[in-house]
Amino acid sequence: MAEIRTEELLMNIGPQHPSTHGVLRVVVKVDGEIIRDAEPVVGYLHRGTEKLAEDLQYTQIIPYTDRMDYLASMVNNHAIVNAVERAMDLEIPERAEHLRIIVVELNRIASHLVFLGTYLLDLGAMSPFLYAFANREKITDLFNRISGARLTFNYMRVGGVKWDAPEGWVQDVLDFIAHLRKEMEMFHELVTGNEIFLERVKGVGVYDADTAINYCLSGINLRSTGFNWDLRKNKPYSIYDRFDFNVVTGKNGDCYDRYMCHMEEIVESMKIVEQAAQQIPDGPVMGKVPKILRVPAGEYYSAVEGVRGELGLYIVSEGKDKPYRIKWRRPSFINLQLLPKLLEGQSMSNLIAVLGAVDIVLGEVDA
Question: DSSP 3-state assignment of 81?
Answer without folding.
Answer: helix
